[in-house]
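Hi everyone,

Forwarding the result from last night's run.
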Amino acid sequence: MDEGKQPSALASALHYHDRGWAVVPVTYREKRPAERGWQNRRLTEDDIRHEFAALRNVGVLLGEPSHGLVDIDLDVPEAATVARRLLPATSSFGRPSKPCSHLLYLARGELATKRFSAPDHTNLLELRSTGAQTVFPSSTHPSGEPIEWKDERDPLPIDAAELLRLVSLVAACTLLARAWPVLGARHDASLALAGGLLTS
C-alpha cells in the first residue's frame, strides 16, 4: 500500500471486525445504512467480504454490539476546541475540514445515546452509544472529503457515568462559548457569569 493511502473499505471493515466492533455497510458518500433493521445486523467475516465487495462506506454499531464503544461526535468548532481541553486523550478521526470531530471511548457501564443542542436547535455534539452508528475511516463524507484517522490508538476505557459528566460539561462550555460576546460587553458578561456561579 502506498504511504498515505487509505485502506479499502473492505480492509477496514475486516480490521474493525477483528477488533470486536460490529460493522454495517453504508451507501457510498452517505451517513446512514440504506437497509432497514441495520441496528440488529451482526455480520460475519464472510458477510463482510460479500457486502463490501461493492463500493461502500463503513458503519460501526456503537454501544453494546461493539463491547461498549462510544463516539463523541463534535458538530461545531467550539465543541472540538472545548473537548481538547476537557476530555481525556483517546483515538480520534474526522475529515480534512474537521479532523478531530469524532472521539472514541470504551464505556464501562450502560450509556444511552444523547444529543446536546443549543436553544436555536443547532446540534452542538452527540454522545452515540447503543442504537446508533457512525461512519468510520475508509469512508467518504457526503461532501466528498475522505474520513480518516487522526489518532488510531485503542479507545480509552472510562466509567460511563464519568464520561457522561465530562461530555455534559463540554456541552455547557460550548454553549457558553457560542454566546460569549466577541466585542464590547465581555466585562458585563463575566460579572453575570460569576454571579450566577456563586449563587448556583
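The chain has five helices and eleven strands.

Cheers,
N.
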